[in-house]
Structures are given as structure tokens and as C-alpha cells.
Write a structure and sequence with these properties.
- By secondary structure, the chain is α+β, with helices and mostly antiparallel strands.
- It has one domain: Nucleoside Triphosphate Pyrophosphohydrolase.
- 17% of the residues lie in helices and 48% in strands.
- It contains three helices and ten strands, in the order E-E-E-E-H-E-E-E-H-H-E-E-E.
- Strands 1, 2, 3, 4, 5, 6, 7, 8, 9 and 10 form a ten-stranded mixed β-sheet that branches.
- Strand 9 and strand 10 form a beta hairpin.
- It is globular, with a radius of gyration of 15 Å.
- The relative contact order is 0.23.
Length: 155
């Protein structure tokens, strides 16, 4: 299993989203996701978060919170433990991202963008300010086949 971070940077009612359109052979191709990536050797979740934020956005995060852990399982790739963060403080200027196009979008508009089906589950938890959670999302390719929140099957 891979360890990774996934972060949703907020600015008022807007969220910084990454439209994954630049990488070849990308399981996220065409989808809108938060920023983040895989841990490097001996890196903690928050160290990975800060490094990935800087690399993908040019921003230095100044206020963030770990909100949960998402276990992402897919028949097409190795599984991931994703440490899910939100951030509401940052410094610097947005830069180009090598993995896609960054765009500030309203939370309402975000619901209509193409993304992983299970993302809506954890985004709703984030927007409801739910307590720390464990969420397992099981996919067959692009199709969500099971979702388990804090040990209870919800899908």
C-alpha cells in the first residue's frame, strides 16, 4: 500500500482544485481532485503535505488540519492510504502545476465537476466539519463498488 496526502485548500467558499490533464497514463486523467501526492522516504504526513503543496501550487501552507484517512482500493492499481487534509491558510502566489490545471472553484460548482464518485462522500464530510474519520473506498476501475465509513458500510 502506498501512503499519500490529499489536501483541499480553501479560500472563503472556494476550493483550489487540480484538473488532471497533463500526465500520461494517469488514473486521475480528466478528473478534478485536491492536491497532494506520495510520501517520500522517511517523510511524515504533514511533511509530505507541505512539500506537495509547494511543488504543485507554489503555496506555503500556514494553517492545515488532518481530517481523516481514506483507504483507496482499485482493481487497476496499488492501494493507497490517503491522509486527508484541509488547509485554510497559505502564503505566496499560485504557480503552474506539472500535473494539471489549478483553479479556484466554488463548493457548489465543485459538485458538478468530474471526479471520483467516492470523493463526494468525503467532501461532504469535510464541508459538514465531521470529526476525524476512516473511509474505505473500493473501486472496480472507475466504478465505486463499496464505501465503508468508520466501520459501517454506506454503499
Amino acid at each position: 500500500m502506498i501512503n499519500s496526502t490529499l489536501c483541499y485548500i480553501t479560500r472563503g467558499n472556494e476550493v483550489l482544485m487540480l484538473h488532471r490533464i497533463k500526465k500520461k497514463n494517469d488514473i486521475n486523467q480528466g478528473k478534478w481532485i485536491g492536491i497532494g501526492g506520495k510520501f517520500e522516504k522517511d517523510e511524515s504526513p504533514d511533511e509530505c503535505l507541505l512539500r506537495e503543496a509547494r511543488e504543485e501550487t507554489g503555496l506555503k501552507l500556514t494553517s492545515w488540519r488532518c481530517r481523516g484517512i481514506v483507504t483507496f482500493l482499485n482493481s487497476c492499481c496499488e492501494g493507497e492510504y490517503m491522509y486527508l487534509f484541509t488547509a485554510d491558510g497559505f502564503e505566496g502566489e499560485l504557480s503552474d502545476c506539472p500535473e494539471g490545471e489549478l483553479q479556484w472553484v466554488s463548493r457548489d460548482f465543485l459538485d458538478s465537476l468530474p471526479k471520483w464518485e467516492g470523493d463526494q462522500i468525503f467532501l461532504n464530510l469535510l464541508w459538514q466539519d465531521a470529526p476525524f474519520f476512516l473511509l474505505t473506498l473500493r473501486y472496480q476501475a472507475d466504478t465505486l463498488t463499496e464505501a465503508v465509513l468508520n466501520g459501517k458500510k454506506i454503499r
